[in-house]
Amino acid sequence: MSIEVWAPNADRVRLRRPGRDDLAMTAGDGGWWSADVDLADGDEYGFVLGDGDDLRPDPRSRRQPRGVHDASAWFDASSFAWTDAGWTGRQLAGGLIYEMHIGTFTPEGTLDAAIGRLDHLVDIGVTHVELLPVNSFNGTHNWGYDGVLWSAVQETYGGPAAYQRFVDAAHAAGLAVIQDVVYNHLGPSGNYLPEFGPYLRTGSRNTWGDSLNLDERAVRDVVLDNALMWLGDFHVDGLRLDAVHALHESGSSPVHILQEIAEGADALSAHVGRPLSLIAESDLNDPVMFLPRESGGYGLAAQWSDDWHHAVHVALTGETVGYYEDFADPQALPKVWSRGFYHDGTYSSFRERDHGRPFPEHADSWHLVTYAQTHDQVGNRAAGDRLSAMLSPDRLAIAAVLTLTAPGTPMLFMGEEWGASTPWQFFTSHPEPELAEATAKGRVAEFVKMGWDESIVPHPNDPETFSRSKLDWDERADGHHARLLDLYRRLARLRRERPELTDPRTGGHDARVIADGTGRRYELHRAGARVLVNLSPEPWEVPGGDVWLATRDPESAGSRLVLAPESAVVVGPSR
Fold it and tell me: Is the pTM of this model over 0.90?
């Protein structure tokens, strides 16, 4: 076999294996180096660059048994005995996504332990499980966005073999798997790519670090190969592409990197005969993400909609600081319900400029992934507090109704379905004390600037910050947690049973708000269905209909219904 590495910065590259002499690699075209070598599954190796003696892991390593600073291990993905030959996949339209962080989903924090909880996801009607990044980072626990080796599954999660077992088990349970991938930056510890070559853009940084040098063909190919690795070798059903607005390439690129990824995924989908869905996390409010390539778009399946989150969050909590300010508009929730984006060319006070483009009238609403909570919106609060720390059980129930009747593709953040009382905080495990302190100080400074009390900001590197963020599975059987969990089950079942609640045609998504001194009331339409939300302390009398679901039973008044305060009802034609 031949092993290759792109290292144009090096004038000499050697392949190092334990207990053997270094093997000189042969220089090829375009900065590529290669060597013929026999590597069996588990064999360790690495590269030595130039005249130095320090071993560096393979930039395309599939496994790092002792962490990101040590040798790579060869991983033979073909040795796994898959049992999902009959798996035909799941389309995203009509689906229900569940966002999961492996390290905090179970007490053990491993992929194998998560397999034992897949029945819970099936029970509540989930169709797609979306994993936060699992690629290798320095330390034992992390959100995953500090990864430095895109193709190696974090060893503390169980490594690549455990990942294959997880995907295989998910398919056996009828669940599609979406993997969150980060191509916009690399973590602060263990990033040796600049020693190999110009993987990063000189003088170009985004919020998290140096941007990738996407003007370099070899770097683009590494990204494309990684995307197809997850979809091919690991049988994953889709990718969530992190912060694509931070992907920088010059205008000379004939095809945007997102379009290249989509073209590769579509070709593989045609070959394997199942849907492969790409979802962008985009701050741009630009339908170019999901419009078909024939219409000038990139051809992804969907994008996250923070506008939806912000409108729902403000309506339920009343918070209006920072980027929530614009969403204090009483028309914010009706607008995102009926027209997709709130900022569709309107002025954004947070950005201090006009922002976004209109959601196309002909586009299906499922192209927007909508949610009331995510890892970002919970974990990037000063104390990592969930909606359950801010809202009454009645308002948590309303959040559930809005999430699962929304025109988009709904997504839950793990534990949301029972109103988990555990926070989900920003945690790290940097072994380097100076990096740990710099991260903590930067975190505090960021929140102080936004007006938060610095005393409530936990230290990211404190092991208790990580421990506090693990779900408490025992509480889901208790009191209001159990009642909320049952509501999520019933709402997911209602979505499956009533086509009005998965109809993606935007023509039937009308909405209005009644705002007065007592609070807001919303009338939200999905084709022939009405979602009525009473956020006031007073009863609300509305035209009647067949009650499909209610968070609190309404009273009948002849041909009309009287909604209780702080309640929601889904009404439609007789079933």
Answer: yes
